Amino acid sequence: MPFKDPAIAWRQGGAPTSSTTRRAARPVQESIRSLRPGGRLIGMGSHPGPRAEIDLYSLYRHEIDFRGAHTGNLREVPEVLALLAAGTVRPVVDSVFPLAEAAAAQERLVSPDRFGKVVLSIG
């Protein structure tokens, strides 16, 4: 089910005041539309790529606060580690390379079509 269907349906009972967008499956514009007026959109990283098409009037008309956040902070690390350990969240892995192929992994890391983490496997 597309993101916008349940999110926009939720607006009937009150849209969220904030939302995050991290994945190409949820385009930025759909996230903007899911917010109630005065809401906040947090863009985390650039998983969909460095460019997104946004209707600026949708930001202005609804007074949406759009903020970028490249990473978290050290206070969030214990919480994230607990979520990872519980299997609640899983990292998106683009590719896995053996340590002997670290140079190829570095090339993949800077590739513009990379989506997710590049992992070096030891052993």
Automatic annotation (TrEMBL):
One Pfam entry name: ADH_zinc_N_2
Signal peptide: none
Superkingdom of source: Bacteria
Region (Disordered), start-end ranges: 1-30
PANTHER family linked to this entry: PTHR45033, ZINC-TYPE ALCOHOL DEHYDROGENASE-LIKE PROTEIN C1773.06C (PTHR45033:SF2)
Name used for this protein in its record: Zinc-binding dehydrogenase
Organism this protein belongs to: Amycolatopsis bartoniae
